[in-house]
Amino acid sequence: MSIKLSSSLWSLLFFSMTVDAEAIMLMNQTYNKPWHTKLSYFISLSQEKRDVDISRLSENSAFERELFKADYDATLLSFTVGGNVFDQTSVHLDVTASRFELVGDIYAPQAQSVQYQRNKTLIEIFAERDLKQGYTVGFDAYYGGDFYKNQGDDNRYYDQEYGGGLMLSKKFRFDDSHLRFDYIFSHRQIKVDSLEEGNIGNSFHNIIAGYSYQWNFDWYTDMTGRLSYYPNYDLNRYWDARYITSLATELGYRMWGNNIMSLRAERMWFGGHSNSNIFTLKLEHQFGTKKSKRRQRRYKMPNLLIK
Q1: Torsion angle, CA of 243/270/246/140, rounded to 10 degrees?
Q2: Which domain, by its residues, includes 10?
Q3: Considering its fold, how many domains does the chain have in total?
Q4: Do 167 and 183 form a contact (C-beta atoms < 8 A)?
Q5: DSSP labels, 236-266
Q6: pLDDT in tens, 7-40
Q7: What is the pTM of this model?
Q8: pLDDT tens, residue by residue, 261-280
Q9: For 76-103, what is the mean pLDDT?
């Protein structure tokens, strides 16, 4: 009896060691895959509309504030490549080309019409590392620029934009949803070609709360709130305020596995005198069959339409 029991124990131990060895080999094969086999590819097309109602402190003592009202239409084409190329670390590279048109009026106090088009490109790299228990840290850096002509001026100008940020995130997972809190420290720099003193730079802090729910039949809903704090801001610039807040809702549908169509509505407040409504329709296609938890950057400030 003891001989049979001993034989059974040895068989069980051998089987357990074999299973563990196979699991370790499988993990090693996964980690030892060439980095390019871990990449996912995305291409997206977005149509964005904004109505802008903002103001700034006037430099003319005859009246207090200048008001700017405008409609803004933009088309964006984006290509993204990335994935978990390192252990517990994801890296993504994004290239975006956009064309936008703005039509509006500045009241200071007489109405002055504003209308122009711009073509813009932006390249960005984002890296994020998993710290376990729902915590992640990340950073990103971006550079872009846009060509344009001013009204009544035949010269062609090129404005540059660059910056980056550091992020700490905590995610709480539930059965069909998750709740996320982010803190981001950001810096953004603008070089305005048409102005002699055209360097505009600012560092700011962001707190973001986001809730995502996965419905049946491949529908999902995202709700996001953001508070941005600017220690240094200029009351004489349209887009500047000590606090900028926003609330957004996104409804998306996954089609045929690799395609997502989404509609996003967002309202932003620039201090107590300015606001903007933003509506975005987006179609995204993922190449291949890889699943990805790619984080979409939602922390950029709006384009400085009036420099």
Answers
A1: -70
A2: 1-32
A3: 2
A4: yes
A5: TSTT--SEEEEEEEEEEEEETTTEEEEEEEE
A6: 554 555 455 555 455 555 545 555 567 777 778 8
A7: 0.82
A8: 999 999 999 888 899 999 99
A9: 91
